[in-house]
Every structure is written in C-alpha cells, then in structure tokens.
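Side project, low priority. Logging it here so it doesn't get lost.
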Amino acid sequence: MRLKLIGSHINKGLINLNEKGLLMNRKYMFIIICLLLCLSFQVAIAKTIYIEVNGNDETGDGSENKPYSSIQYGLNQARTNDVVQVGEGTFYENIVWPRVNGIKLIGKGESLTILDGSQKDRVIQLTSGVIDKTTEISGVTIRNGKGGIYCKYAGPTLSNLLITMNSTYSDGGGIYCYLSKINITNVSIKMNNSCRGGGIYCSYSDLKLENLSITKNKSENGGGIEVFNSNLKVSNVSFTDNFACISGGAIFCHGNSEKNQLLSDVVISNNRAYSKGGGIYCISYYLLNMSNVTIINNFAYKGGGISIDITQKSSNIIFDNINKCNIYLNNAVEGNDIYSNIKINLIVDIFTVKNPSNYHLSPIDNFTLDIVQGRLIQKNYDLYVSPDGNNENKGDSFQSPLKNIFYALSSIQPNENIKYNIFLNSGVYSKKTNGEVFPLKLIDYVNIEGQSEKDTILDGNKENMVICCKNISDVNLSNLTIVNGKGNHGGGIYCAYSRLNLSNIVITENCAIKGGGIYTTGSSVIFNEENRCSIYSNHAGVGNDIYSGSNIDLILNIFTVKNPTSFHIKPLPRNYNILKGLLPQKKFDLYVSPTGDNKNKGDTIDSPLKNIYYALSVIQPNENSKHTIYLNSGIYAPETNGEIFPLSMIDFINIEGQNKNNTILDGNNKDGIIHFENNNNITLTKLKIQNGKSLWGGGIYCFKSNFNWVHPV
C-alpha cells in the first residue's frame, strides 16, 4: 500500500527525482546508515582499561601502552560492560565500586595480582542496587583489609579469588552480604577474622557457593560462614579448621523466617566451637537439606558435628535418602556427633557406629535411625590401648592393643548389666604422640585404668580439657596423670551431674577459666583414701586447682599447699585431709621483684620472690591477719618474669606497687590480668595494668566483689 502511495506521489510530481537523482539519494542514505551502524557498534563494544603498578593516573589514558596506576581510577572511568584489566603486583587500595553495572575487574591470577587494604577499610565495597551478576571480580587476591568484600544491595559474580587475612570487628571477615544475591565460584577464603561470619556473613540474601575452600577463619559465631534469614546453596565446598568462640565452627544458620539451606557434596572437617555445633549450628526457623555431606573430626561443647536448637515445629533437618551423608568421629561434651532438641530422622551411609548410644547422639530418644554402616566396629568386651597400638587391632589384649582412648570409648558397647574396662598401657597419650582426641568423654559402665600415675600420662597439649564426665551414674578413673588440659570449666576434669571415683590420679599443670584442675557441679567426686590422688600447680581465674559447685571431701596425698585458701579451691570445702603441701606457706607480708627468685623467703625487698602468682599461692591471710604483697619496680609479664595471668584474688590481701608508672602488670595481649569473684577486703595500690585480653574484663574482671583501687592506671 505504501509503495503504491509513493509511486502515485512521484507520478503527480510531488517528488521530482530523476533516475540519477534517486540513485544519488540512495547512495547518501546508505552512507548515513553505515555511519550510524558504525557508531552504534562502537558504543556496544566494551573497552578494556589497563591498570599497572608502574602506570600513571595523570598521564595515562588507560590503554595497554599508557595504563593507569590505581584500580579505583580505572573503575571510575569504566562504563557498562567495560573490562578493568589489572596487571601483576600489589595494589594498596580501598575500593568503592562506582554505580555502574556490568564492569568486570579481572586480574592476572590470585598469585600475581594482589589487592591489599592496609587494614584501613574494606578492600572492595559494592553498595549500589544497580549491580547484578554481570558485574564480575576475578583473578585477584583480596587481603589485609578491615573486611574483604562488602556487598549491600548488590549482586556481583565472584570467581577465581583468594580472600585472606582480612580482619574486622564488624561482620564478615572475608565477605559481607546484605540484601544481595551473590554467586561465588572457585574461591579460597582463609584466615579471615570477624565478630560474626569469619569467612562469610550473609543477611537477608541469596548466596550460592560452588567449588570453594573455606578454611582457618575465626569469629564469635560462624567461623566459616554465618547465615541469617537467607537462602543458601552450597555445592562442592570444603569447610576445614575454622573456629568459633561461641557456636557454629563451620556454619551457623539462624533467623525467624522460612529459608532453605541446601548443602550438597560438602566436606566439614576439623572445625571447632567452644559452645555449640563444631560443624553446623542451626537455631530458630530453618530447613536444612543435606546431600552427600561428610562431617568428621569436629568439636564443640554440645553437638560436635551438628547442634540443633530449633523451636518451630515446621523446621527440619532433611538427610537425602539417595545421596547419603557421612557423619563420624566428631567430639563433644554432649552429643559427640549430633545434638538435637527436635526429632530427627537420621539417614546416613556411614556413622561412627552402627548402633549409636547417647554418647554419639543426644538425646538418643530424639532420633530415628537409618544407618548403612558403622565407621567403627563395636566391641562387647574389655579393651586395651597403647600409644604404639593400632586402631585396626582387635583391642582385646596388650598384645593387640588399640591406639586411641577416644577410639576405644567410641566403639565399646557396655550396658547396665555388663560393665567393661579400658586398660591403658604405659606411655603418653596426646595429640602429638598417638593422635589422641580430647576431651575424653566418659560413659556409663566403663572404667578407665592406667598402669600408674608415673607411667600413664594423658596430655592435653594446652588445647582441650582432658576428661569430661557428664550425666554419668558411676565410673572409676585410676592410675594415671592428667596434665596440660585447657578448658573454660575444668582444664583437667569437668564433672557435671555425675558420680566419679578417683584413685591414684595426679592432676597438674592444667588451666581453665574456672577450676584449673577440676570443675564440678551437681556431682559427687569421691577420692580414694587408700590410693590417694594428688592435685597441684594448676591455674584458673577462679579456683586454681578446684572449683566445686558440689560438696566434696578432699582426701589427697599432695596438694599445692597443706592448708588451701580460696586461691586454690573455690569455695573452700568443709572438710579436707591433705598429707603434704607442695609449696611452703607464708604467714607474713611478701616482697616480689621481676628479678627475684621463688626459692627466696620473700620476707624482705632484699630476698624477693619472682612471681605475683607464686606469692598469692603461698600467702596465708585471714580476717584477723591481713597481709600485703609488695611489688618492686619493673614489668610483671609472661615474657619478663614468667608471670602467670589472670591473678586470682583472695580475701584480706593488699597488693602494693612502688609507683603507678613503674610497677607494671602486662598481659602481653594473651590473658586477662586480675580476676575477682566473690571477694572482699582487697586493696590494689600504685599499679599500672596494661595489655590484658579477655572476653570479660581484659584488665580487671570483677563479679560480686568489693575492692579498693588506689592510684590506679
């Protein structure tokens, strides 16, 4: 129709073009169209902006021959779909991503292109809602920032990265994402620290992880990753050696809305949490789906592998029935492999044992079981263990001993009608010698017996408490030494709501926040009168040797001192029968100097002791005879005079320095310095307290106590 109309206009002379003119017109039109196409083609083509360490932002133009020197400047020149190509070298920058979508930041590789935040700010911040998955960051290392990558309202694609050694007092040491949708592929996230989510913190977001290594990250919660009110899809990812001060060594999931967490082809191993969920901790309202997930060798106080604290009935943990999971040889005070407060249908290929007990799953009544095979063969007889044994042995004699006590406890299968013993050969049982796993959680109807206190040594290497006894009706421990344990409560032995019989046991050089040697609550600890135990030289903020929430009759061969004070035992027992004290007690004022000697009498400034800790241990004040510990000028620290912190205070004592500027208690940023708990009638004078470090009171921790603080610094 249009052709006819044009034709009619031509015929009427409205358009007077001869054949030659028409051809010329078409030629010009063709040229114009070509120019327009070329222009649009040039606009559509993404340009590459080059960044080199030896470039120049002022004289460069971003070309390969004249590169810029800073990534920030290059990003600011970029437009949609441009590539910012970063060369080899280290770039000390804190980058704020421009409000432009589709820019691709590409390095030469994680080992060649380094983005260093200099601990000034996050290394990269993306906070624009226009940024989606077409924005890419790839081929670089992101390190040494106050946080690595910060994403808010942004959804970039992250691939082929190393994110390491970033640290923040906020959330997300490696990656932080809020109201974002992020895909992360082929990335290593390691050795990052934060308050929450050492490796990754994710809030109100959708996060997809594929082909990742998340290792050696630390935080209060979620050492590897913390997920709050978010959807999480994890595939082919390993979580190893992450640590949480509180819960969720590898993964911490929580929130109040229904979100899905899908884990497939995942390995969670050697992660730790002091409280709950060495591997995974889930709380509140969540659906956790697991397919071909392996959870091994993780540790926590509750739920070594997994800990579940969920209140909503619609929340659930779903184990894939086809691609089955493996959960074994995790360790905890309560629920070695899994603790759950809801009903769980446990479907796995390999579990620690085929027929688990409350030792492995707690409480056992919350679990229905579908276990194909046990990692350990269960044994219905006495077991024998030796540091030079082999866990593949039968373990029925010292001629065929097992290697680990932990292995023996995990595989033995007693019942109330048949009690068994685990006999320990001479030697040192530790992580370094025989790969021992601590704490050793005692179980009902199984006694542990060594050769003698001198010959059978359980050594915690200052990493874990050694013995845990919780909810145990009656068990015997005999003929061994417990040394170098470390825990929050009870470095050597933790005993809660149990009956524990001790004979020929030495407990020494253990440390804890409470009860360096032994911590008890709601328990009956019975010391054998004929085969007496010895407890001495342990250390804690409260109750250096013993903290007891239970009434105990202390019947011992050797204790730190013959007549203990609240420095040694908190609270003091009504009855004690101690044959010998390791240290001589002193009923007079004491003098201490960093250049002194603990073999001195300590009664004058010319014959001073060396450590404040030692002085507190041997001094013997009372309400009728208050004593003073005089400190000479100098620095009292672990690195100068071998000082031991925290110093546990005792009643009716004064500690007085020479001058508040030259009598210095220095914690070397390792421990808290002074600890008060239920103390009275104490005065501190002319002291400077510095470089203490603790979750509660780095300099001074004071709980239900009164003390006088004169001329402090």
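Brief comment: Confidence is low (pLDDT under 50) at residues 1-24, 36-43.
Revisit when time allows.
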